[in-house]
Amino acid sequence: MMKSSLIRAPDEEEAAVLVPPPAAGAVPCKVVDDDNAALGVEWQSSSSSSSSSPGGATKKAWWWTALLSPTTGAVGMVIGGLVVLALLVGTTWIDLDASFLPGKGRGSISRRGQHPPRRHRSSPLVPIPFSCGNSSSTPQCRRGMPPPSAAPFTSPEQPTAPPPSCPDYFRYIHSDLERWRDSGITREAVERAQPKAAFRLTVVSGRAYVETYHRVFQTRDVFTQWGILQLLARYPGRVPDVDIMFNLEDMPEFRAADYPDPATAPPLFRYCKDGSSLEVLWPDWSFWGWSEVNIRPWAPLIEEVGEENAHLPWQDREPYAFWKGNPGVSEARRDLFRCNNDSATGKEWNARLFAQDWVAAIRNGFKDSNLAKQCRYRYKIYVQGRSWSVSEKYILACDSPMLAIDTPFRDFFSRGLVAGKHYWPIDPADKCRAVKFAVDWGNSHPEQAMRIGQEGSGFAREDMSMEYVYDYMLHVLKQYAALLRYRPTVPEKAVELCPESLACPAQGRDREFMMQSRERYVATYEPCTLPPPFTAEEVTRMAAREEDVRRKVAKMEGR
Known about the structure:
4-stranded antiparallel sheet, 11 strands
């Protein structure tokens, strides 16, 4: 493994020490990248997209050490305060977040209240029944079961703690549904989305029914439906009756400008959108596994990522930015390859870019594409596919900073990522120079680089835990159901789905990943509390902050 010395830029030494190093004993979760899988899949189908401080990094500047010395006295502290104030005003490094600055707990990264582990619950575990039986035929969905309780189980001996507030990205649920807030959603509006839908999902009295319209790429539909069934099992009696059209493709379908009358706009659930599209966002299928490319479900995978990469400290990784995948699915990816190292011409952009050998990968069953073992670089690049890419969550899952090439496409969680805090923004118009600068800057300011990486990985591990993914799904359905102006009924051609009807006839990795992502116990607690919609003032403030970060980055780059 290549190592390199960490050299500070003299004129920014002081700015770097304003950011405290990670807390002692903190175990980093290192980065992964699924583009080697996700992008190749997209290439195969035209309809798819698809803590420790480094050596020398903890040394403080001489003036900082001197000012904190007991022999310096009050005068030294006053001078020190003035120096710090001058640095805060005059430096051009990214103003990350107040939680990074001294006084917020040395090395601490503020996190919201999390769902406590199930083993710490005061109420007894309630197993979710599942059995394939001994018959070779597909099991029938259970009938005659007692109606599920709509209230969470509680222990009379020990009151339950109030649920935490949901992460801020949940607030975009209100934004997605705002168009129908006054008019409501009619059956006619729902059915108007049918030409763009892969299937229609109806939930009636806690049971799921699906009417299929067309085949989709690989098993996107199967694992999306599997996730819905796990939600119903996890929160029995708390999922409302709904009637939904699901689109499983990559590109947005409906534009807001085409529907000036909100009452006629067709609601369509899908994985991503841009700023002008109408869709309601839903977690993508890969949270429950992508069997065709051997990507495990999110919960066990992110645990494996942490375990595998704890052996490779950030300072021991290759001091470059890494990306691997299929460049053929988008112009953004093809253009990125201009940034590869070219020793013949002497161009060094600090990027190490690789095109996946799909023939070899498919031949060996993607055994050499284990995402949990792919963190070998200090920086990881995120670039869109045809639209968004499922790779973002795997790239984000490490404490290596994500260098995200700006894109208009967002999925449900990425709307909560903050530039300069969770990732470093890369200007797509000048991506090679921007990547080179980001890597040079991070190698010269390792504490700050690691802090960005840790905030990103903390977001992936905590704010995107499967418990929050399910809570997001539940809140979307509740908000959507409240807007329906009719009572959902089971379509004539729909078939009932249950965990047994999907998992029991499944084979190979399909079955394996379903079992890995199956919910074992009923949630005996309330979901997180949905925050209110963003105010106009908050929207303006967030946009101004994002613009300010990009302005500072441009200034640092000399643009």
